[in-house]
């Protein structure tokens, strides 16, 4: 069995961000991957070096991304950003896409992917929500349903057109970036996942499956499918199928 190497940029300063990243690493290892935690700040040369070592990349949760990256001024409800992390992760994400590395983006990672493709975000979802989307108290349990497109990669992985997920975000995708589409949404119509078809594996989810696997084992399938997609890269082949 091949043990592909997955690169995951180091989380920011927040304790909760380190907490979620720990669970991402554990889920990847359980799926059969070797994990390399990457420096939080990468130069273009360093990113090129990382690409020679990593077969795929996971972009995890973290602070709000600078609104300037999607052409907006910061609103009062937008949280503090880490500009250096934003710049470094956008650089690495772009390089990974250009070099056809499999990608799995979670939470902030999904928003980062959307911004890279020219999409925009709602800086704050506001109070008008059918379900509470920033629910830290229940971060390990499913708190609201999502509908899944039967023609999506997400459907093939989970084997269902619905799922119940946790929710830890106050921002959401507004305009979807060119080349991406929404394979799952919430009852209010917010994007809960993004997919890029013209790529070996590019899936993003707004929820945090890494925190759900103990109570909802089906969520581990997302990590298993991602690691499986990275094995052909590790062996020097390019094919992947579920």
Salient structural properties:
Rossmann fold; nine-stranded mixed sheet; two-stranded antiparallel sheet; 242 residues; alpha/beta; 6 helices
Can you summarize this structure?
This protein has 242 residues and is of the alpha/beta class. Helix content is 30%, strand content 19%. Helix 2 packs across helix 3.
Provide a descriptive summary of the structure in words.
The chain has about 240 residues and is α/β, with parallel strands linked by helices. It has one domain: Rossmann fold (3-Layer(aba) Sandwich). It is about 30% helix and about 20% strand. The protein contains 6 helices and 11 strands. It has helices at about 15-30, 45-55, 85-100, 110-115, 155-160, 220-235, and strands at about 5-10, 35-40, 55-60, 105, 120, 145-150, 160-165, 170-175, 180-185, 190-195, 200-205. The protein has a 9-stranded mixed sheet, sandwiched between helices. Strands 5-8 form a two-stranded antiparallel sheet.
Low-confidence stretches: none
Structural class: alpha/beta
Task: Report mean pLDDT, rounded to a whole number.
Answer: 91
Q: Level of helix content? A: 25-40%
- Radius of gyration, Cα only, in angstroms? 16 Å
| Topology, number of strands | 11
Strand order of the largest sheet: 2-1-3-4-11-10-9-6-7
Distance between the termini: 17 Å
Strand content: 15-25%
CATH topology annotation: Rossmann fold
Largest sheet: 9 strands, mixed
CATH superfamily (homologous) name: Class I glutamine amidotransferase (GATase) domain
CATH class call:
Alpha Beta
Counted up, domains total 1
- The CATH architecture can be given as 3-Layer(aba) Sandwich
Tell me the number of helical segments per DSSP (H or I, 4 or more residues long). 6
- SSE string, helix = H, strand = E? EHEHEHEHEEHEEEEEH
